């Protein structure tokens, strides 16, 4: 008679009491993080500052210094978390506005309008001013993170620019693919993408980023001066952007 094979033992599961304790701790930590984020936003808005102190944040949140540094190694790491949420809200707003427009030229205009919606009203100026003014300092500390978020905001504009150029009258069609033959050897390097001679730049992504830098600079200037974006300014920037990225864009934006 042979001995039964050695069966693997079940993993050691923690007692239910330990699981409940860990769940309570996770819930408490999540609550602390949200309280710190909410308090920081309130302090920045109420005090009209882009750089609140840790003591102000703790007083508004009702939490201890230990709780603060349990979750964030520095105050700027907390501000970065707020900025990430603000970027995500802005990205979704841009995508929603552009999704309703089929004409790529008008999608460029909608992108500008969506960005300028950050300062469309006096209340939005108060709410978004601290985040806009905090950008330069946080960009210096966290270039990779902010660069990634900016890329996400710029991507819909780059797509609209590329689509508008392809749809423009006189735009060359992509070259037809050909099979190599005995008399036509295979190309060793890909041919350059076709470009319109009247377009100042062939790379839509580069032009979109330049447009973003222009638009964001206007946002920061208006935020610093506590000014909302007027409709006339928005329309002027749309016309300028069309001329910059399409070279022969429409003369005036349609509302």
From TrEMBL:
Keywords, A to Z, come to: DNA-binding
InterPro entries, per this entry? Homeodomain-like_sf (IPR009057), HTH-type_TetR-like_transc_reg (IPR050109), HTH_TetR (IPR001647)
What GO molecular-function term can you cite, just one? DNA-binding transcription factor activity
Which ranges of the sequence are annotated as binding DNA? Answer: 53-72
Region annotation Disordered: residue ranges? 168-202
Superkingdom of the source species: Bacteria
Q: Which Gene3D superfamilies does the record match to this protein?
A: Tetracycline Repressor, domain 2
Instruction: Please report the name of this protein according to its UniProt entry.
Output: DNA-binding transcriptional regulator, AcrR family
Q: Which organism is it from?
A: Parafrankia irregularis
Tell me the organism's taxonomic lineage.
Bacteria, Bacillati, Actinomycetota, Actinomycetes, Frankiales
